[in-house]
Amino acid sequence: MKNKFILKGFVMFTCMLIAFAGHAQDKPKASPAKTATGKAGGANIAISYSAPSAKGRKVFGELVPFDKVWRAGANEATIFETDKDIMIEGQKLPAGKYSLYALPGDSEWSFIFNSQTGQWGIKRGGETSKDASKDVLTVKAKPAKSASMAETLAYEVTPTGFLLRWENTEVPVTIK
């Protein structure tokens, strides 16, 4: 009789755990994973990132500080892939898979393509996990005011390059 009671309790406890685990998985991630794909410069391009939302915060210059390397998204470092060699802002980037970092500025941005991939985007102290010795290419781009507010970070691959858009800012990067 005592064993039946223990078994019943164990079964009920297990069912509750499964129910809670199932419910927790239904909650959407704060910064969901996204991928922007397309053709630019004759190559297939994919940018995989986690997309944070502004949530009423001032993004560039505050949430994402100026003049500090940023993982160009949330969670893991953003990944940029090209299946062919391309020219980004007039500089050659060999075909491959790279972590993409950004150095936002008020009037100019830098995008950094780094050969190390798979790392979490930041360390405990808030600094990026980027290893500067693995930087392959750094290009400059000019930010502009976007036509409309973008609540969530988004990348778009276009025939002429890619575009980062978030809050009231968009940053186009040319690819040939």
Structure description:
There is one protein chain. With 176 residues, the protein is mainly beta. The protein has one domain. The chain is 14% helix and 46% strand. The strands form 3 sheets. It has a 6-stranded antiparallel beta sheet, with no helix packed on it. A hairpin with a 2-residue loop joins strand 4 and strand 5. It is globular and about 65 Å long. The N and C termini lie far apart (76 Å). 26% of the residues are buried. This is DUF2911 domain-containing protein. Keywords: Signal. It comes from Dyadobacter chenhuakuii.
Class from helix and strand fractions: mainly beta
Helix tally?
1
Order of helices and strands: HEEEEEEEEEE
Cα radius of gyration in angstroms? 21 Å
- Global morphology: globular
Q: How many distinct beta strands?
A: 10
Biggest sheet descriptor? 6 strands, antiparallel
Strand content: over 45%
Low-confidence stretches: none
Distance between the termini: 76 Å
Give descriptors for this structure.
single chain, 176 residues, mainly beta, two-stranded antiparallel sheet, 1 helix, 10 strands, globular, DUF2911 domain-containing protein, DUF2911, signal
Secondary structure layout:
Blueprint: H1 2-26, E1 33-40, E2 43-50, E3 74-82, E4 86-88, E5 91-93, E6 96-103, E7 109-114, E8 135-141, E9 144-158, E10 161-174
